[in-house]
Design brief:
Order of helices and strands: H
Shape: rod-shaped
Strand content: under 5%
């Protein structure tokens, strides 16, 4: 897995989590 993809996935997950909390 590329580090860039991992970073994007992590960012996406973080955003999704924030959205859920919101």
């Amino acid at each position: 897995m590329n580090p860039c993809f991992c970073f994007l996935y992590r960012r996406f997950r973080s955003r999704l989590k924030a959205n859920l909390t919101y």
